[in-house]
Amino acid sequence: MAIEINQSELPLVVVVGGGFGGTSLVHKLRSAPARIALVDRTNHQVFQPLLYQVATSSLTPSDIATPLREKFRNQKNTMVFLGEVNAIDPVKKMITVSGEQIPEPYDYLVLATGVRHSYFGHDEFAPYAPGLKTLEDAEILKDKILMAFETCECQLEPTAHPELLTFVLVGGGPTGVELAGAISELARQSLATQFRRFDPTSLKVIILDGGDRLISSFPPELSDKAKKHLEKLGVHVRLRTRVTKVDDEGVWIGGELIRSKNVFWTAGVRPNPIVEQLGAPTDKGGRILVNPDFSVPGFPELYVIGDAASYPDRKGGILPGVAQVAMQQGAYVGRLIESKITRTPAPKPFVYFNKGNLAVIGRFYSVVDSMGVRSAGFFAFLIWALIHIQFLPSSENRVGTFLKWLWWLVTGKRAGQTIVNASRNVMKRLS
């Protein structure tokens, strides 16, 4: 079925991607004399920094996601379309969504398409090492984690298959660190009294990373504190380690095999393949080398923001693919497009304001490097909680998440220990 655009003389702005960057841009255009078409392959915006809490049963999907139509229900100039962009013709200014071409050319197109998992040329790892980028990913990981314990409980000899309770995370960035700490606490605190035939605390959680320290975007002293706290939680950290193979037996490091039925990929990302159709220059990671105003070279009405854009920082590097970067870029491009539509002065050149980095490692412990504050522990945890509550997509998310966190922090009980689809899980009972 073709997408029907409201007919009008107003310019058409198509935004592809309903994440942090795309929604920030659409919101900035709320008063613009334009027709805005927001296209996404899901019907919701998800707060990705908390996906690991859905995967480890602390929160449910509705706590960290809000429907796009609900979010923009009062923004009358905005249409929301559920679909996936298949093709872009930047010369004719036409795009194809779910196999159907939008019937009129766009005036402005913004790609805020985010990223997908990158296995660094080894896509054969994917079936054995799922990643964590969407709500569906989080549900799959949650089912997989909980099924590991359920499977052990049903065995004639519950401890006969240690590979069921060996969890390996490939990648020691924020996602890997947060997920490792959460899995360890899930077993040692929440599940410890729920099983009768085996001890859930007998699990083994391992982080593998090729670098010389965890969460390398943080200062070395905070990386070291994060490592020590993970080890206190029972997590095994192996640095300077290169994974050479992942299969149904587990993870291979050269000739060494770590037997595991639960391997999770937290190592790398790559832009959505749709940006490759632009034919524009890219960096080594496949991100588009955009102009200073985020336009694609040769196409001043086509913009790329967020994780798919390669934009220099003040230190000669590239701005990281994190939420605060995408939000600031989206707001800037929104102001820029509105200035072009209304023929008013363009905003000043984009300057990124770095609000810092945060990562949580279990209950009551975080590391924070933000605006001159470098801290680890309970105080950092309070900062982390305050910031994450503030940036959730809706007021309903904020209230619900706060209450569930409060219950979890006080009791250790988790709200999402429901296996949605046990048959979908690759874990099979061993007899």
Summarize the model shown.
This protein has 10 helices and 25 strands.
Give a topology summary:
Elements: E1 12-16, H1 20-28, E2 35-40, E3 44-46, H2 51-55, H3 61-64, E4 65-67, H4 68-71, E5 78-82, E6 85-89, E7 94-97, E8 100-101, E9 108-111, E10 115-117, H5 135-153, E11 166-170, H6 174-190, E12 204-208, H7 220-232, E13 235-238, E14 245-247, E15 250-253, E16 256-259, E17 262-265, E18 269-271, E19 288-289, E20 295-296, E21 299-304, E22 309-310, H8 323-342, E23 357-360, E24 366-370, E25 373-377, H9 378-390, H10 395-411
Parallel strand pairs: 1-2, 1-9, 2-5, 9-21, 11-12, 11-17, 12-13, 19-22
Antiparallel strand pairs: 3-4, 6-7, 7-8, 10-18, 14-15, 15-16, 20-21, 23-24, 24-25
Helix pairs in contact: 1-8
Q: Architecture of the largest domain in CATH? A: 3-Layer(bba) Sandwich
The number of distinct structural domains comes to 2
Number of strands: 25
**Helix fraction?**
25-40%
Question: Taking all residues together, what is the mean pLDDT?
Answer: 92
First-to-last CA distance: 49 Å
Strand order of the largest sheet: 5-2-1-9-21-20
Global morphology:
globular
Structure classification = alpha/beta
Q: Count of helices?
A: 10
**What is the name of the CATH class of the largest domain?**
Alpha Beta
* Low-pLDDT runs: none
Radius of gyration: 22 Å
Biggest β-sheet description: 6 strands, mixed
* CATH level 3 topology of the largest domain: FAD/NAD(P)-binding domain
Strand content: 15-25%
Multimeric organization:
single chain
Structural summary, described in words:
The chain has 10 helices and 25 strands. It has helices at residues 20-28, 51-55, 61-64, 68-71, 135-153, 174-190, 220-232, 323-342, 378-390, 395-411, and strands spanning 12-16, 35-40, 44-46, 65-67, 78-82, 85-89, 94-97, 100-101, 108-111, 115-117, 166-170, 204-208, 235-238, 245-247, 250-253, 256-259, 262-265, 269-271, 288-289, 295-296, 299-304, 309-310, 357-360, 366-370, 373-377. The strands form 8 sheets. It has a 6-stranded mixed β-sheet with strand order 5-2-1-9-21-20, with helices on one face. A 4-stranded parallel β-sheet has the order 13-12-11-17. The protein has a 3-stranded antiparallel β-sheet with strand order 6-7-8, with no helix packed on it. A hairpin with a 2-residue loop joins β24 (366-370) and β25 (373-377). The radius of gyration is 22 Å and the shape is globular. The N and C termini lie far apart (49 Å).
